[in-house]
Every structure is written in C-alpha cells, then in structure tokens.
Amino acid sequence: MIPFNKPYMTGQELEYIRQAHERGALAGSGHFTRLCEAWLEKRIGSCKVNLTHSCTAALEMVAILADIQPGDEVILPSYTFVSTANAFVLRGATPVFVDIRQDTLNIDEQLIEGAITEKTKIIVPVHYAGVGCEMEVINLIAQQYNLLVVEDAAQGLMAEYKGHPLGPWGDFGTVSFHETKNVISGEGGALLVNNPDYAARAEIIWEKGTNRSQFFRGQVDKYSWVDIGSSYLPGEIIAAFLLAQLESADEITKKRLAIWDQYHEGFAALEARGLVRRPIIPEESQHNAHMYYLLVENLAVRTALMQYLKENEVHTVFHYVPLHSSPAGRRYGRISRELPVTDSVSDSLLRLPLFVGFEDAPKVIDLVYKFFALKS
C-alpha cells in the first residue's frame, strides 16, 4: 500500500533528543524550545513566538488573549479543521461560517463584510493548502470595523503572500507541526504574536497563568499565579525533534515542491479534458506544497476513484466535512448565507499522497488516468 503520508526525519532529530536528555531538563520552556522560537521569530517575522503542544492550543490561547466572551462572534470558513472553531466555542463565542473561493478554497474575502455584526470580534482566515488568503483586503475590513485578525496558518509554514511569510499579517498567527504537516514534531504548534501589546500576557497564559518566566529573568521577585492560563507548552523532546526539522525546512519545502510539480504537470491533460480540476495558485502566492488535491465532478466520482485507488494499493483521503453541516457546527455556529462552494468542494476534493521521499507520483498519475479511461 502506498501510504497517504509518511513522517520524514532529517537525521538530526535523535541527536538533539539525546542532547536534551543530557541537559537533564525535559520539561517545557527549555533550551530547545527557545531555539525553535528564535528560529520562527527570525524566519516569520513575528515579534514573539510561543511554542505550543498543538496548533489547537495556540488557537485556544488566542481566544483568551482576545478576551472572547459568551455571545461574541468569530468569522471563519466552514471548510477548515474543527480546531479553528472549537477554540472560540470553548470561550462561548458563536462561529459564523462564510463560504470559500472557487479558486484557492480560502475564505471569500468579498463575503466577510456581509457577515459582520455588532457582536463580531475576530476574523479567522485559514490558509488552505499553504496558499495565502487575500490578507490585505481582510486587514482593511478588520481595521474598518475594529476587529482582530487571526491567521490560521496551520498548513502555511514556508509559504508566502506577496513576498512575505504567512503568519505575521494578522494580530496573531498559529502554526501546526502535526505529523501530517511539512515540518513536524508528531504533535506541536506555535502561537505567533504579531501585536506586541499581547506578548507579555501570552507568555503568562502559556505558562499556566503564572509569571514563571518573568521570575527566572529577574523581572519580578515572586513566582505566582497572576492570570488564567493552562499548560500549553510542549516538552523538550518535542522541541528537540522540531528544531532538526526547522533547520531543514528549506530542503523539505524544495523536495515537496518537486513532487507537487510532478503531479501538476502530470494531470494537465486530464484537466484539459474537463475530468478534473487542479489546484490554482494565484500569482501573489508562493505555496509550500503542503498538499496536492484534485477536484472531480461529484461525490459519486470521488468515492469511486478513492475505491479504485485503494484496490490498487494507493491510500487517499478527502478534506473536510464542512463545519456548518456537522452536528456541533449546527449546534454552536451559524452561517451568514448559503455556502455552495464549500458544499461542492467537500464532496469533490481528493487528496493524493505527498511526502518527502515519495517516488510513486507517476504510478498514482497513471492510475487516475486509467480510472477515467475505464469510466468513459
């Protein structure tokens, strides 16, 4: 079976884990955590980065920092992972789901303003497949209505919008290092604090609501509980593994892009025949080859194609069940208007295997062509 994903190791991870153990401090907020945070701050350009045990944790920190209260509203796409909404629902907010664009599958920035009410506090653009949302337009809307912008860049590390990394365009950004992402630590994430007004409190929330870091820096004479928070930081073993990945991020991205390009060229003729639609990358975006997907005619075709590939030992997945149509989405959220693109894409999108070291793209391409030949 050709797997959908295979976690990649650079070769330095185990050595860094050994060094972390040798230092005798495996809890969070240590040497390797600081090195990872410094790498991200320099590469992305955020004023402060807090490494977290997941991107979900980073989003939950944002909800606290933004002082989300019951009855507040947060605008986001329905076509995203549950964590994007759940972090704010946990604080009592209502997610307001907006449709996505036909081309990039990102939130349709032209629909955001129509979803704003007096209860709206945050806009959460999600950079789907590492392709940047229209951040300049979104930021102008946010400024006009005095709203915060939170970039869900879970899939966006090493991608750019208009020549700048994804993540620092909003007040906050969040990144994932889950094993299915490009740069991984098994589980893991980061909060990108781009507005310096929130940096000090973010650190306190990150460390269970205490001023522990301030105490160890000699900024306060007592280490105590000063705010709400939780244990959002990862252990040093996770951070050590991640540092090796970050140091090889350029190489990882280059290798993934080569596979993505192979797929893209291979499916051009099939798209020309109107049987699939390939990903569309706007001129202002530099994607990171986080995924390669095909859009087919409908759910029946996708189901049949997935089954055909499975029978030929290729594992594929779809992405996502829209949040607005899920049980919890109907219970906790609402739509601002109908979401026809989201509904269509959720039935027709198929993700293909893509990971560093993957050499079977020609086989997958050939099988997809054979499927449509048999179907015709």
Comma- or semicolon-separated keywords:
Aspartate Aminotransferase, domain 2; 8-stranded mixed β-sheet; Aspartate Aminotransferase, domain 1; 3-stranded antiparallel β-sheet; 2 domains; 15 helices; single chain; alpha/beta
Please provide a written account of the structure.
With 376 residues, this protein is of the alpha/beta class. The protein has 2 domains: 13-247, Type I PLP-dependent aspartate aminotransferase-like (Major domain) (Aspartate Aminotransferase, domain 2); 249-375, Aspartate Aminotransferase, domain 1. It is built from 15 helices and 13 strands. It has helices spanning 13-22, 31-44, 55-65, 82-89, 112-115, 135-145, 199-206, 212-216, 236-247, 249-266, 268-272, 299-311, 327-332, 340-348, 361-375; strands at residues 48-52, 73-77, 94-98, 120-123, 148-152, 160-161, 164-165, 172-176, 189-193, 285-286, 292-295, 334-335, 349-352. It has an 8-stranded mixed beta sheet, sandwiched between helices. The chain has a 3-stranded antiparallel beta sheet with strand order 7-6-10, with no helix packed on it. α3 (55-65) packs parallel to α4 and α3 (55-65) crosses α7 (199-206). The longest helix is centred in the last third of the chain and has 18 residues, at 249-266. The radius of gyration is 21 Å and the shape is globular. The relative contact order is 0.17. The mean pLDDT is 97.
